[in-house]
Amino acid sequence: MNIKRLLLAFIAVFVFIFLFEWVFHGVLLKETYAQTSSLWRPEAEMQGLFAWMLVGQATIALMFVILFARGFGGRGVSGGIELGVLVALLRIGLDLTFYVVQPLPGKLIVCWAIGGLIEGAVAGAIAGGIYKTGTPTVAATPEVRGA
């Protein structure tokens, strides 16, 4: 495992996740969350817990790039996208269980699924582009002269 590439990929994926989540949840889905405000903590309380959001997103980013490096690192961007989609599909399963036990609107679950697929694929492409392992070169074999 290349620690330098792993750390660079972690930082890049973390920054992407932070920005994507802010735009996706804080801007695009803001009205949907406002309509379901009784299901969420008050804004002031969430702001007080913001450090935990950063810890959670950093944990996701770190584990994502470790999984990439351990199982998909030799496949570059395409391997990263594949991992991102697989992780997003896992997350969709979790979202569906929340839909069963919490009164979330179906529209929100669909948005989370679409956003998760986009986020996973892009995070994977970022990890794959940064962590990619070099293609092994084949050494030229010495010419064998006739016997």
What does this structure look like?
This protein is mainly α. The chain has one domain (3-131). 76% of the residues lie in helices and 0% in strands. It contains 6 helices and no strands. It has helices spanning 3-28, 30-35, 43-48, 50-71, 76-101, 106-131. It is globular, with a radius of gyration of 20 Å. The model is unreliable at 135-141 (pLDDT under 50).
Q: H/E element string? A: HHHHHH
Biggest sheet layout: none
Q: Roughly what is the average pLDDT, rounded to an integer?
A: 92
Structural class: mainly alpha
The tally of helices reads: 6
Question: What coarse outline follows from CA principal-axis ratios?
Answer: globular
* Extended strand count: 0
Percent of residues in beta strands: under 5%
Topology:
Elements: H1 3-28, H2 30-35, H3 43-48, H4 50-71, H5 76-101, H6 106-131
Helix pairs in contact: 1-4, 1-6, 4-6, 5-6
